[in-house]
Write a structure and sequence with these properties.
With about 60 residues, this protein is of the alpha+beta class. The protein contains one helix and two strands.
Length: about 60
């Protein structure tokens, strides 16, 4: 295995581990009714699940 292909493999493994951790964290937040924050490309945005306990009042 070349050094470049080994680096790609490790990078892919790291990406998959991070992706899994984030998915689990978001699922836990959703089940608990808590919000999480995502980046929409311009600014951070709060995302509230349907059963959110801390959703700000709609105006």
């Amino acid at each position: 295995m070349t050094e470049a292909s080994e680096f790609r493999l490790k990078s892919e493994q790291a990406f998959l581990a991070l992706q899994s951790a984030v998915s689990e964290a978001i699922e836990r937040k959703r089940r608990l009714g808590q919000y999480w924050v995502v980046w929409d490309g311009e600014k951070p945005v709060e995302v509230y699940p349907e059963n959110a306990v801390d959703r700000p009042d709609a105006e």
